[in-house]
Amino acid sequence: xxxxxxxxxxxxxxxxxxxxxxxxxxxxxxxxxxxxxxxxxxxxxxxxxxxxxxxxxxxxxxxxxxxxxxxxxxxxxxxxxxxxxxxxxxxxxxxxxxxxxxxxxxxxxxxxxxxxxxxxxxxxxxxxxxxxxxxxxxxxxxxxxxxxxxxxxxxxxxxxxxxxxxxxxxxxxxxxxxxxxxxxxxxxxxxxxxxxxxxxxxxxxxxxxxxxxxxxxxxxxxxxxxxxxxxxxxxxxxxxxxxxxxxxxxxxxxxxxxxxxxxxx
Length: 265
Description:
- The chain has helices at 11-25, 44-49, 124-146, 179-190, 196-200, 232-235, and strands at 2-7, 29-33, 52-57, 65-70, 79-83, 100-105, 108-114, 150-155, 194-195, 209-210, 222-223, 226-230, 238-243, 259-263.
- By secondary structure, the chain is an alpha+beta fold.
- The chain has one domain (2-263): Endonuclease/exonuclease/phosphatase (Deoxyribonuclease I, Chain A, 4-Layer Sandwich).
- The mean pLDDT is 95.
- The active site is at 114, 155 (proton donor/acceptor), 256 (proton acceptor).
């Protein structure tokens, strides 16, 4: 099973690039973030045409997550487990946001997340980010207790370590690198979840995001915020992991690159 995460930064704007990636790389399960589409406007038929089932959790103009499953894999439709992650506490005024979708696919629990950015910090958006991470940890502990093979994929909006960014000074004041979200991410790993990309690239230096501004892509000024976390039942099956970096360099591409992992059957 090949699982992947891809922040597409607008499903309508990136649809040709997204279908291109699906056709060329054929992930079994693809988790998408920032679809930026209301539920009724999600282009499910476009994915049916290239052989994918789809389930989605949309929101007008912002956020939104979706999970695609390759029909050829013979796993059937993804079975929804949970939609949304309601936060009890501080928020940024938007109410419950479309950032979380959890399904069962082929005997594996797949969780697709788009964690809040948190900028500007300090402030209510940063407080909401920390509250959301606490709720995520709580839900991941519940999944852990079920002892089902599980993977949590998505744009975590956390740069875990200094070697996950081209220049620490450039991002020092950004919410993505503050001690609180870094600590929250580290606690997920301490609980026993495995950072798949880190496992195969312990020295870092692998980016998943390059800003559109200041020639960041051309200068390779990127950082790593798209992660795949595996519980022991899936970590033991990890065979390969990588980043489809070349897709970031294509015309009208997302500012993120897809990240994928292969799990042995």
